[in-house]
Amino acid sequence: MDRPEVDELTPPDRTLMGPGPSDVHPRVLRAMSTPLVGHLDPAFVEIMDETQELLRYAFRTDNQWTIPVSGTGSASMEAAIGNLVEPGETMLVPTNGYFGGRMADMARRAGGEVVEVDAPWGEPLDPADVKNAFDEHQPDVFGFVHAETSTGVRQPSVPELTSIAHDHDAYVIADCVTSLGGVELRVDDWDVDVAYSGPQKCLSCPPGASPLTLNDRAMDKVLGREEPSRSWYLDLSLLEGYWGDERAYHHTAPITNVYALRESLRFVAEEGIEQRWDRHRDVAGALKAGVEAMGLEMNAADEFWLPSLNAVRVPDGVTDGAVIESLLANYDVEIAGGLGDLSGDIFRIGCMGHSARPGNVSFLVSALGETLREQGADVDVGAGTETVASEL
Amino acid sequence: MDRPEVDELTPPDRTLMGPGPSDVHPRVLRAMSTPLVGHLDPAFVEIMDETQELLRYAFRTDNQWTIPVSGTGSASMEAAIGNLVEPGETMLVPTNGYFGGRMADMARRAGGEVVEVDAPWGEPLDPADVKNAFDEHQPDVFGFVHAETSTGVRQPSVPELTSIAHDHDAYVIADCVTSLGGVELRVDDWDVDVAYSGPQKCLSCPPGASPLTLNDRAMDKVLGREEPSRSWYLDLSLLEGYWGDERAYHHTAPITNVYALRESLRFVAEEGIEQRWDRHRDVAGALKAGVEAMGLEMNAADEFWLPSLNAVRVPDGVTDGAVIESLLANYDVEIAGGLGDLSGDIFRIGCMGHSARPGNVSFLVSALGETLREQGADVDVGAGTETVASEL
C-alpha cells in the first residue's frame, strides 16, 4: 500500500476497425473535456432534453421514452430485458449469434423462462421459424438481434417479425447495438416496441451512456409490473422520475458521457440519418469489395451483409490471433477475431461511424493484405487495394 | 422526426459545492479527451492494472478484487449488495439516512430479507444498537454508510461495527461514496469486507466508473453462490473474467471513464492519501467555522462532522430552494438542499476533492452569506468571511 508510481496517460494511437469502440471524432473528445455541471442543474436538464431529441431522430421514433442508460451497451440491454420480462413470463430468443445467448441469460436472471428460435450462426432468423416458435410457445416477449456483432449478419424483414409478435400479443425487443446510426433502422415504422444500442459503435461515442427507446405500450407494461424489476439501478419506473417531467434525483447521471453522446448525435443530425446509412454502405462496400478481390470470403451472404461489421473468413494457412496481433503491433490497427461458434474462423472488421472513412478502409485493406501475405496466406494484395481505390 | 437543430455544447461555468459532482481538475478533463484504445487492447489491460493499483492505495487495501464498476455510484452499490445478498438471506441496514433506504431496496430486489438498526437522521449508528440487532436478527450481511451524503454524518467506530458483524459470521458492506479519497478510510485495518464508492465526490472524477473492493472472504461468497446474481451486467463472477487474470470479454468497459479515474487517482497518490484527508479536514474546517461564525448551525454534532459534506441548518426566515436558486443564478455556485427527513431543513455543501480548495470555500461562504442576507436571514456575513480568512 505504498504510493503507486503511475505515469502520465500515454496510450498508443490506434485506428479502431474492430467491433467497437470505433474512432472518436475530435469534436466529441473535446466535448468530454468540458467542465461539468451538476446532474440536476437546469442547464443539464436542457442538455438531457436535447440529447433525447437527437436520440429520437437517430432511432427514427417519436417515443417519449428515449434515454441514455447510465452504463455501457450491456446495461441498456439489461434495462430492456430486465424491465420487460416479469418473473414467470416467457421470452423467445434467437440462437444465431453470441448476443441471443446473452439475452437468454438476462431473461433468466429477470425470473423469466427462455424458449429459442433456431438459426445457424451466420444466418438471420427465418420469419416462418419465428411464427412456428410463437405458435408453439406463445412467448410474452420476443428478442432479436438487428445487427449481430458476432457474425456480421443483418436481420432483414424486421416488420414481418414484429407483426408476428404483435399478432401473438407479445412485446418486441430489438438489439440495435451495431446498427443505430449506421444501418437502416426505423423503430416506429417497423413497429419495434423496445430498442437498445451502444454508443461506441456507429455513433462513435466513447462508451458509458447507452441509447434505449420504449414505446408507450412497452412503458405501460413496465409501469404496471406487479413486482419491481430486479435491478434498482436499471429500474425504468424509477428512471422515469429523472428523465421524465419531474427531473427528480434517482442516481448521478454520467454527465460527461451525456455531453459526448449529445455531440456524437449532433454529427448524425448534421449528416442526416439516411445519408449516414448510405455512407456506411458505400465505405464498407469498398472494404468488402477489397477483401473479396484479394481472395478472401465474407462469412455472411450478400443479402444479409452488415456494413458496420464485416465478418471475413480466416484464409487457410494463417491463425487469426497472429494476424490480429501483428496488425496491432505493426500498424496500430485494431480488428477482432470470432466469438463462440465462429471462434478462430473469422476476422471481425468494423466500419462504424467516424471509422467508416475512405482513409481507414484503404489503410485497413492494405495492412490486412500485407499481414496475411507475411503470415503465409495466398492473397492478391494488389487486387484488393486497387479495388478499394476504384470503389471509394 | 425532422433533423433536430442542437447547438454547440455551452454549459455554464459552475463552482460545484454540492453533494457531487465536484469540480474536476483540468488534467482529468484532458485525460477524458484522450483518443480511445479498445477495451481488450494490451495497452488498456496495463491501464486497468494501474487503475486497480491506484484504487487499492486510495481504499487502503491489498484486496485483489478492487475494480471500477461500469456505471455511476449506485451501480457499484448494487454490484456490492446484489452479489453479496443471496435469495433468502437477511441484510441489516441502517435507518439514519437516505442511503440506508436504498440499500434496503436493493437487498429486497436481490431476493433478500431486510432488517433494520435504527438511529435518527443526523446521527451515526450506536454499536450497542448494532449488537442488539445482530443478536435479535442474526443477519447474513450488514450494510452501513461510512459517510452519509444526506445528513453530513461520519460513522465513527467502524472497527467496532465490523467486529460485531464478524463475531456473528456476517459480511460487512460499507458505503464509502462520500469518504473515499477525502475522509479517513482504512478498508483492511478496519476489516471491511466490501466497500464501494463513486468517483465524482472526493476523487473529483466525472461519474461513470465507480470504485468497488472486496476481500477474498467476500469474493469467495460471491463465487460460491448457488444461483447467479440477478443482474448480468453487475455479476462479479463474470466480471472476474475481465478484471482478473484472464482478461476475457464480458462487456465493453467505459474506456474514457477509466482514463479519467486513473488520472484522478494519480492525484491521490501524488498528494498522499493521509495528506489528502488532512486537507479535506482543514479546508472544510474553515468552511464550517465560517458558517458557524455567521450564525448558522451545523446539522451534525462536531464529533460526527463529515468534512466532505457539510449539512448546515436552514436559518429562520428563508426557504432553502430560493437560496439555492439564487446562488446558482447570481454566483454560478451549486449547493443542494436536504433529502427525505431533512428536506427543507438543511443545505448540503460539499467540500470534496478538487472543490476542497481555499478559493472555493472563501467564495462559497461569502456568496452564501450575501444571499441569505438578501433573502432576509439574520446572518453576520463579515464574521463569517473573516473567520474563513483566518482559518485558511
Structure description:
The structure is a homodimer of 392-residue chains. Chain A folds into 2 domains: 26-270, 3-Layer(aba) Sandwich (Aspartate Aminotransferase, domain 2), CATH 3.40.640.10; 273-391, Aspartate Aminotransferase, domain 1 (Alpha-Beta Complex). Chain A has 13 helices and 14 strands. The mean pLDDT of chain A is 97. Chain A is 42% helix and 14% strand. The first copy, chain A, is globular. In chain A, strand 13 (336-337) and strand 14 (346-350) form a beta hairpin. In chain A, the strands form 4 sheets. Chain A has a 7-stranded mixed sheet with strand order 2-10-9-8-5-3-4, sandwiched between helices. Chain A has a 3-stranded antiparallel sheet with strand order 11-14-13, covered by helices on one side. In chain A, helix 10 (273-293) runs parallel beside helix 12 (358-374). By secondary structure, chain A is an alpha/beta fold.
Strand order of the largest sheet of chain A: 2-10-9-8-5-3-4
Looking at CATH, which topology of the largest domain in chain A would you report?
Answer: Aspartate Aminotransferase, domain 2
Question: Taking Cα atoms only, what radius of gyration of chain A do you get, to the nearest Å?
Answer: 21 Å
Q: Strand percentage of chain A, roughly?
A: 5-15%
Going by CATH, the homologous superfamily of the largest domain in chain A would be Type I PLP-dependent aspartate aminotransferase-like (Major domain)
What is the ordering of alpha helices and beta strands of chain A?
A: EHHEHEHEHEEEHEEEHHHHEHEEEHH
Structural class determined from secondary elements of chain A: alpha/beta
Keywords (chains A, B): Aminotransferase, Pyridoxal phosphate, Transferase
InterPro entries (chains A, B): Aminotrans_V_dom, PyrdxlP-dep_Trfase, PyrdxlP-dep_Trfase_major, PyrdxlP-dep_Trfase_small, SP_NH2Trfase/AEP_transaminase
Family (chains A, B): Belongs to the class-V pyridoxal-phosphate-dependent aminotransferase family.
Protein name (chains A, B): Alanine--glyoxylate aminotransferase family protein
